[in-house]
Structure formats: structure tokens, C-alpha cells
Predict the 3D structure of the following.
Amino acid sequence: MENSNFLFEISWEVCNKVGGIYTVITSKENVINSKFENYYQIGPYIENSKHYFIDKPISPQLKKAKAILEKQGITIHFGTSKYNDKINVILIDYEKYGHKINEIKGQLWENYQIDSLNSDWYDYDNPILWSWCAGKAVEEISNQISNPDDKILIHAHEWMSGGAIFYTNLNSNKNKFKTIFTTHASILGRSLSENNINVKDELTTIDPNEFSYKMGVSTKHQTEKALANHSDCFTTVSDITNDEVSFFYNKSADMILYNGFGNEKIKSLDLLNAKFYKSRKQTNKLLKNIFSKVPEIDPDKTKLFYTSGRNEFKNKGFDLYIKSLAKLNTQLIEEKSEITLINFFLVPIGEFEALNLEKTDEIPMKTHNIGNHQILDELKKNGLQNCPGDKVFNILVPKYLNGEDGICLLYTSPSPRD
């Protein structure tokens, strides 16, 4: 794999900001781009991705690949990310290939014993169809732009992208194409945690396949296991996850790719500190408006916390975090501490209308009109209701803020992206 000339990195979150893998990919893309002569990111052409994508003119070779794929019902869009014009991005429109899904699922059963008989279109079939089409696109693009002796590397993130590896294994030259599969978490581990089953305690004591049927995730589990065992290189992102998958898939990771912090953008500590103080000033302006009903809060002397993650209440530890905040609130009140803490739950849940926080008579606990949510219910259950006299205040932000969302735009100017 060291001699690969081409890297196609495939994820449902390319130009589609729905979770942490978007950040994983975008935070390392410049480094990866410097290591490969030909680096392409591949994602789905869906409504959300259109907001992050810019179409670009393409070469005659890519036009030929595009025409060949369109005859098969697959439309590819070439361009770059809105935020980084140095990265080649390919988005796949796969809807017209949907009539092939049962044929694809048949091949997955025959070759990998993946039982998808009762799978749901939106939950399983749709992403597998997309990534299968991504595999076909990689093959055709490579036919047009690579030389016979070039090596092509395909890196698929999570089971949703696995169709590309399955297609490649079953249809392409294995000497030319090599595959990497990365799982960032196991679907079975997620399901066990959601059902209050301690994964660590249950490791080696359960039948993973049997339990996957009980949890209703058998098709995804079998897909992950097949990808782990049939890719050229299987990776995961932590020792804990590797412990899980070693048992669930009967295959340990060939390599653990730890998530890290890239500091290449930090030119100097002075510049970093300047950006920090500018951002904090903007944040303080926002806090003064949100907590205008609590005059004793001085944003300049307030500690700011935040937690962020998918809308998975137990898997992301929001339940334990809230209990800890409640204990801290009680302790600070009893000690008559001068410390005030404001905590943000930055959890993308959906699209909601921004609240006009200046017109509410109560101390707000959310920035948008979300109604009820498990986080809000748990905060109230633990006595964290943003009451005068509290030392710990909480705000739920249920969508990504972009400076034009009615929150940042209304109360402060947007912070620079970098």
C-alpha cells in the first residue's frame, strides 16, 4: 500500500456534516493530500451535501468516466468542498441505480452471508446502494485516469461505505485495488450500551451474531464483520473499540488509527491566543444576551464547559455528565463559591427555529424551539433548571450554528471557521 498512487477516501459524511467522521476527514485532509498525487473524497449527492459542495470543470478523461457511469444510472459530480478548494470531491447520485439493490443484496448473501432479507431501505439499503455505486465509480474513474501499473487505494469509513469494498473485491483487479476499512465504533457495542448492557462485562460471554438479531442490528453487524475480515487492512480508532471488535468480528484491527489534533494551522502561540480572546469576547456577548435575566452572571468571570456528540443520550454519556453537573452545582452552592459555570450541550438533533431569547421571561435552557428532549428532561430531573442562585447553568444547542442561524447572527458576529 505504500506505493499507491491514488487514494479514494469514502464516507457518508464527505460534504455532509452529520457527525464526528466529518471532522476526522476534514481535519486531516491537507496532510493526506500532500502524501498522494491523486487524492479524492467520495460522498453522497444529497440535499445536505449540496450546501458544502462546489462544482468544478473536469478533464476529458473524467467526462468519459462520467458518461459511462450515467448510462448505468449513476451520476457523479466533481468539485471541491466549500471550505477547502484544494481537495478533490466526488459526490454520487445513485437513485437511478436503485433497481439493482436486490441483486446487490443477493451477492452480499452469497459471498459474505450477510442476511439483509428484512433490512430497511433508509436504514440499510440506501447507504449500501450508494457505496456500491461509489465502488463502481472508483473503478471507472481509475480506468480513465490511471496507468496499468498504478496502485489504487480505497479507504472506507464505517459500514455505510462498505459497499465500495464489496464491489471492488467481487469485480476489480485485486492486484491493482487495495482496500482499508475503518470502523469508528461497532454497531453491536452501540446497541448494547443503549440498552444499559455493560459491553465490557459482556465481552466473551455472549454470542455476537445471536445478540445482533435480538438488538435488531444483525444486517449491519454482519456487514461490519465481513468488511473487517475481507478488507486488505482493517483499522479502528481506539484500544477500547479494538477490544470490542476483536470479539465481535473475530478479527483484531491490523492498525489502530488514533484520533488526534493537527496543529499545522497554529503558526504561533501569540496568534492562537489572539484568536482565543477574540472568540471569547464574541461568546461573552452572546452569553450576556442569553442570561440577561441573571444579572449576577459576569461572563468575563464565568467558566465555560461544553460537550458535543451525536444525539445518542447514553452512548455519548450525557446521562452521566448531567448527574456530575448536578453534584457540582450542589457543591458550589454549599461552598458559597464565587465560581459560575455555563455548560453547552452542542448536539445536532434536527432543524429548529431559533428562539428570540430577548422576549422570554424565563432563563432559557435552549437556543431553538425544540420542545421536549431527553437532555432537557434529565436536566430538570436532576434539579438543573437554570434558576436564580444556581451555580451551574445549561444551554442545549440542537443544531449546527453557522452565523446565519438566528442565534450567532442575532447576538454576535460569526467566528471565523479556522
Q: What stands out?
A: The longest helix spans residues 121-145. The chain has a mean pLDDT of 90. DSSP finds 14 helices and twelve strands in the chain.
